[in-house]
Design a protein that fits this description.
Shape: elongated
CATH superfamily of the largest domain: GntR ligand-binding domain-like
Helix content: over 70%
Protein name: Pyruvate dehydrogenase complex repressor
Structural class: mainly alpha
Number of strands: 2
GO molecular function, one term: DNA binding
Function: Transcriptional repressor for the pyruvate dehydrogenase complex genes aceEF and lpd.
Radius of gyration: 24 Å
Keywords: DNA-binding, Repressor, Transcription, Transcription regulation
Organism: Marinobacter psychrophilus
Strand content: under 5%
């Protein structure tokens, strides 16, 4: 029986696999520039022509984008599940905010659970930096629109850092695809919540702190519960606000009809 010959794999394919893994695992982020060709070749211990061939294959796949004189970048369309027109459409419908919170309830509870279970020392340093940045926002007592927007963005980044620490590639890229929507949702929620309840900021500070500690102390079940309770609290406040708005609108219609009947 004649057996087929074993074909030796091209080095460029091995390099391509390594770069694809880095993109899939989140080590290379959408829109991020690859290290310079010489530095990357030295890091991988390969020749520059082999690296260049691997990069060209990834460009052909649409995973990398080459810019004339500007290097190679991971495509910023990676994981972009929601287009800008859809973002605007979702923002204009209040019920969509609740739908996103329901989705976050499941998604972020799982992210927190796996982050507490799997976070490396590098992940913990990154999470610590994200948490410290969020705490700095909480210390800002100006309460301006600009401060709230910054807090919302920083809040979303903190939750993104948890997703990265989960080491679940599907969870991570789902969160990345949702990031713009998540960021806008958090900014909108914070503005409304602070006006509704005076204790909201203190509650959010405590909730994020408990979630952070559970992950850092490798307590996965507590982390899942803390994440779930955090989203549930946001849902409760916003639901109460929505119900209050409906009652106010109904009362205004009653008053309008009463005044109309008098005339």
């Amino acid at each position: 029986m004649e057996l087929p010959q074993i074909r030796q794999r091209r080095l460029s394919d091995t390099i391509m696999d390594r770069l694809e893994s880095m993109i899939l695992e989140g080590a290379l982020k959408p829109g991020e520039r690859l290290p310079a060709e010489r530095a990357l070749a030295e890091q991988f211990g390969v020749s520059r022509p082999s690296l260049r061939e691997a990069v060209q294959k990834l460009v052909a796949k649409g995973l990398l984008v080459s810019r004339q004189g500007g290097g190679n970048y991971v495509t910023d369309k990676l994981g972009s599940s929601f287009s800008d027109p859809l973002l605007a459409l979702l923002e204009s419908h209040p019920e969509a905010h609740q739908d996103l919170l329901e989705f976050r309830h499941t998604l972020e509870a799982d992210c927190a659970y796996y982050a507490a279970l799997r976070a490396t020392e590098v992940d913990r340093k990154h999470l610590q930096a994200a948490f410290d940045e969020l705490q700095a926002c909480y210390s800002d007592s100006t309460h301006t629109q600009e401060a709230r927007s910054k807090e919302g963005v920083t809040d979303a980044r903190f939750h993104m850092a948890i997703a990265e620490a989960s080491h679940n590639m599907v969870l991570l890229h789902t969160m990345r695809g949702l990031f713009d929507l998540l960021k806008r949702n958090v900014v909108t929620n914070i503005g409304g919540m602070y006006e509704l309840r005076g204790e909201t900021r203190e509650r959010l500070v405590n909730q994020h702190s408990e979630l952070f500690r559970a992950i850092m102390e490798a307590r996965p079940n507590d982390a899942r519960r803390n994440a779930s309770e955090h989203i549930s609290y946001v849902q409760e406040v916003l639901t109460n606000n929505r119900e209050a708005e409906v009652r106010t609108a109904r009362a205004e219609r009653y008053r309008f009809l009463e005044n109309f009947d008098k005339h």
